[in-house]
Amino acid sequence: QVQLVESGGGLVQPGGSLRLSCAASGFTLDYYHVGWFRQAPGKEREGVSCISSSDGKTYYADSVKGRFTISRDNAKNTVDLQMNSLKPEDTAVYYCAADETNRCYDEQYEYWGQGTQVTVSS
Questions:
Q1: How far is CA 23 from the centre of its chain?
Q2: Nearest CA among 66, 72, 75, 8 for reference residue 35
Q3: Is the distance from CB of 20 to CB of 94 less than 8 angstroms?
Q4: Other C-beta atoms lying within 10 Å of the C-beta of residue 89
Q5: Strand 116-120 versus strand 10-12 pairing type
Q6: What distance in Å separates the CA atoms of residue 117 and residue 120, rounded to the nearest whole number?
Q7: CA separation for the pair 48, 84 (Å, rounded)
Q8: What gap in Å lies between CA 14 and CA 87, rounded to an integer?
Q9: pLDDT score of 103
């Protein structure tokens, strides 16, 4: 069965860190372009970061640049999102998505995870 599953969300204080993981089953994630998106209550879903399968290039939204890092762990068949210096405005449901086409923030990905909640609050 082909699916993506996110994990690692939770409640963290401002300034804290979380590491999200996007695990693939049924396919090899290294061959796919992967994007992380988030959707806060009452807001549209937005692209946060993406990583290319062909050259490993990474991209970040301005709002997370310098704080978030996307990376692949091919041994685990995951793409992780390390989130540091978290702010209350980072609170959202975070989704990962994968596609054979390099889409980055284009949401027409073939595969989507179910999402994981990240709450940044004191």
A1: 11
A2: 72
A3: yes
A4: 10
A5: parallel
A6: 10
A7: 14
A8: 5
A9: 87
How far apart are the C-alpha atoms of 40 and 102, rounded to whole Å? 25
Q: For the segment 57-88, what is each residue's pLDDT rounded down to a tens digit?
A: 999 999 999 999 999 999 999 999 999 999 99
d(C-alpha 26, C-alpha 100), whole Å: 14
How many helices (H) and strands (E) are present in the chain, helices listed first?
Answer: 0, 11
DSSP state of 53: S
Q: How many CB atoms lie within 10 A of CB 41?
A: 7
**The one-letter amino acid at 10:** G
Q: What is the pLDDT of residue 80?
A: 98
Residues of the chain with pLDDT under 50: none
Residue 90 DSSP one-character state: G
Place of tokens 């409640």: 11
CA distance 33 to 40: 24
